[in-house]
């Protein structure tokens, strides 16, 4: 198999710090193999896959070297570490050591072929092996990038061919219909694993976005057959996560026929679609509990969308005499919500207002527009806001809570879903990929005390609910 990295064998003593932010030394080890992108170390029993570590070593004749890494693989022979945050200085230091320790017989490090004619390029794989050239690293990176571009383009061709074969199977009815979803899932998973690896190896977001765009163009004839995938690629409302798309996910019913039916089913069964349905149910439960414990509470629903959560709790709204202000910048969403809630008998307790929630970072303006509130929430809007802006908004929202008031903020946890599902198969990259520690950092920057925060998850565990109480 062709290797994309330049590596050399080594026996270099090293120190592993697994909690390197606090400087805790965990274990001494040895680097057995070293490359520009990673290393292979002697096995360390206490480390786990995907764990972040720091590797410290002294490279003979070069000097001290430190680099952050992530454990990709662990087996009885050792652990494979992928370097992250590699700066240009570290890259040059690594290359100096690797170059000095490559085979003097000019064996190609990519395919292990012997270069008997002493040429600048390997006769077998075509990669540049003129290691003495000052331009080698630049050439190496360009060649490697092209190899990964070829990799994802080949994966795209393979996916297209498999879809064509599957559609022929559906038309001929040569496979039982209940087997089709499983086959489709395998086709999608196989491609998405390759897309994930491509993104991991390339890292250049502009290149990744360009290849995603090309993929969308090349596969539009496939995914446009499914109503949901097509909508989540074209966004006819003009923005990501519009109320009509989410309503389709809530209803959980395929809207297309033929291949499109199975594509709709795949979209509805995806990790986030399941989590979003769970999110609305959990939000209903939280709101119901809050309303039952309050009298005439004032509620602010930010980026309200279709207001689906309010339909099921209409009796609790009436009983508590809650006053709920629903905000959205989409007039269609407000009209839809009004029409839906018209038949529940709660319109007297509701107000709908067109408002751009991005203005809510200013405390004085927000207080003037909406006053203080007992409950403030949004079903999914916060996922779409940059962290620094979100910290300012949460600071404002926390300040306009009445004593004992609650801010309800659900977030998608990127560790619990695969972003490539939504960046490649659909064009849904508006929501940001954040982890639990990122959310905690946002609250800290917002000046919200940790003691005010409680958290829980919806049934699938993908979406975290933070409930923040004004102390």
How far apart are the termini?
61 Å
Mean pLDDT: 92
User: Uncertain runs with pLDDT below 50, 5 residues or more?
Assistant: none
- Find the count of extended strands (DSSP E, 2+ residues): 13
Largest sheet, in brief, is:
7 strands, mixed
User: CATH superfamily name of the largest domain?
Assistant: Vaccinia Virus protein VP39
Under CATH, the topology of the largest domain is which?
Answer: Rossmann fold
- Would you tell me the structural class of the helices and strands? alpha/beta
Oligomer: single chain
In spatial order, strands of the major sheet run: 9-8-7-10-11-13-12
Order of helices and strands: EEEEEEHHHHHHHHEHHEHEHEHEHHEE
Q: Taking Cα atoms only, what radius of gyration do you get, to the nearest Å?
A: 27 Å
Helix content: 40-55%
Strand content: 15-25%
Q: Name the overall outline.
A: globular
CATH architecture of the largest domain: 3-Layer(aba) Sandwich
Count of folded domains = 3
The CATH class of the largest domain: Alpha Beta
Number of helices: 15
GO molecular function: cyclic-di-GMP binding
InterPro entries: Methyltransf_25 (IPR041698), PilZ_domain (IPR009875), SAM-dependent_MTases_sf (IPR029063)
Domain Methyltransferase: 299-405
Protein name: Methyltransferase domain-containing protein
List keywords for this structure.
PilZ_domain, 471 residues, Thrombin, subunit H, 7-stranded mixed beta sheet, globular, 15 helices, 6-stranded antiparallel beta barrel, Methyltransferase domain-containing protein, Methyltransf_25, single chain, SAM-dependent_MTases_sf, alpha/beta, cyclic-di-GMP binding, Rossmann fold, 3 domains
């Amino acid at each position: 198999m062709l290797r994309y990295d330049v590596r050399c064998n080594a026996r270099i003593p090293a120190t592993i710090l697994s909690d390197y932010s606090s400087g805790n030394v965990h274990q001494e080890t040895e680097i057995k193999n070293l490359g520009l992108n990673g290393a292979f170390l002697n096995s360390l029993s206490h480390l786990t896959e995907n764990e972040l570590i720091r590797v410290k070593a002294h490279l003979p004749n070069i000097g001290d070297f430190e680099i952050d890494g992530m454990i990709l693989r662990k087996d009885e022979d050792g652990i494979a570490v992928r370097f992250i945050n590699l700066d240009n200085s570290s890259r040059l230091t690594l290359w100096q050591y690797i170059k000095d320790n490559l085979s003097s017989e000019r064996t190609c490090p990519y395919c292990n072929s012997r270069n008997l004619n002493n040429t600048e390029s390997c006769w077998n794989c075509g990669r540049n092996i003129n290691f003495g050239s000052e331009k080698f690293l630049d050439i190496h990176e360009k060649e490697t990038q092209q190899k990964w571009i070829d990799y994802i383009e080949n994966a795209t061709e393979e996916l297209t061919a498999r879809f064509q074969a599957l559609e022929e199977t559906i038309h001929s009815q040569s496979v039982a219909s209940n087997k089709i979803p499983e086959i489709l899932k395998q086709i999608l998973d196989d491609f998405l694993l390759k897309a994930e690896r491509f993104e991991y190896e390339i890292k250049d977001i502009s290149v990744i976005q360009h290849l995603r765009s090309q993929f969308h163009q090349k596969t539009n004839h496939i995914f446009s057959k499914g109503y949901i995938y097509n909508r989540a690629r074209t966004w006819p409302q003009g923005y990501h996560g519009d109320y009509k798309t989410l309503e389709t996910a809530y209803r959980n019913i395929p809207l297309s026929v033929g291949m499109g039916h199975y594509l709709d089913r795949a979209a509805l069964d995806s990790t986030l679609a399941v989590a979003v349905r769970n999110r609305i149910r959990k939000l209903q439960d939280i709101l119901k509990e809050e309303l039952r414990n309050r009298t005439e509470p004032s509620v602010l629903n930010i980026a309200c969308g279709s207001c689906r959560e309010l339909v099921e709790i209409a009796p609790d709204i009436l009983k508590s005499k809650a006053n709920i202000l629903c905000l959205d910048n989409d007039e269609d969403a407000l009209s839809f919500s009004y029409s839906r809630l018209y038949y529940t008998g709660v319109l007297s307790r509701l107000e709908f207002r067109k408002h751009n929630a991005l203005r809510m970072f200013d405390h004085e303006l927000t207080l003037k527009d909406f006053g203080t509130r007992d409950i403030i929430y949004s079903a999914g809007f916060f996922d779409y806001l940059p962290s620094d802006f979100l910290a300012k908004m949460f600071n404002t929202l926390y300040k306009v809570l009445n004593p004992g008031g609650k801010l309800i903020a659900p977030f998608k946890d990127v560790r619990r879903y695969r972003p490539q599902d939504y960046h490649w198969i659909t064009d849904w990259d508006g929501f940001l990929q954040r982890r639990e520690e990122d959310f905690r950092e946002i609250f800290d920057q917002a000046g919200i005390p940790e003691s005010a925060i409680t958290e829980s998850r919806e049934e699938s565990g993908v979406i975290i609910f933070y409930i923040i109480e004004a102390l």
